[in-house]
């Protein structure tokens, strides 16, 4: 009886149990790898807020540069173009 049980247990463990555990954790990993709708909404809001802050900072820098011609952006660097377009890709 023991001669039959050992190979059956080994076969079951190797060819049924182990792949089942591996596939289970792969599916769990794939479920958590994607963003939820709430996460995407939060990310969009953060992107919008960052763009608004960047626009405000650029406006402040232009005002300071207009009021104080000796002031240069970023210290001693040459003035760079402040207006640029960032395209968002999904």
The helix content is over 70%
Whole-number radius of gyration? 30 Å
Helix/sheet category: mainly alpha
* Overall outline: rod-shaped
| Overall number of structural domains | 2
Strand content: under 5%
Order of helices and strands: HH
Q: Helix count?
A: 2
What does the largest sheet look like?
Answer: none
N- to C-terminal separation? 61 Å
Overall strand count: 0
- Summed over residues and divided by their number, the pLDDT gives a mean of 82
Segments where pLDDT lies below 50 for 5+ residues? 75-82
Features:
90 residues, 2 domains, rod-shaped
Would you give an account of this structure?
- The chain has 90 residues and is an all-alpha fold.
- The protein has two domains: 34 residues; 56 residues.
- The protein is built from two helices and no strands.
- The protein is rod-shaped, with a radius of gyration of 30 Å.
- The protein starts with a helix and ends in a 23-residue tail after the last helix.
- About 9% of the residues have low confidence.
């Amino acid at each position: 009886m023991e001669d039959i049980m050992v190979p059956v247990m080994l076969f079951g463990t190797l060819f049924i149990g182990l792949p089942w555990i591996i596939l289970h954790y792969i599916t769990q990993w794939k479920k958590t790898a994607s963003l939820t709708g709430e996460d995407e909404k939060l990310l969009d809001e953060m992107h919008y807020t960052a763009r608004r802050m960047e626009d405000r900072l650029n406006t402040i820098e232009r005002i300071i540069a207009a009021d104080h011609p000796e002031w240069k952006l970023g210290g001693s660097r040459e003035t760079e173009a402040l207006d640029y377009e960032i395209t968002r890709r999904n």
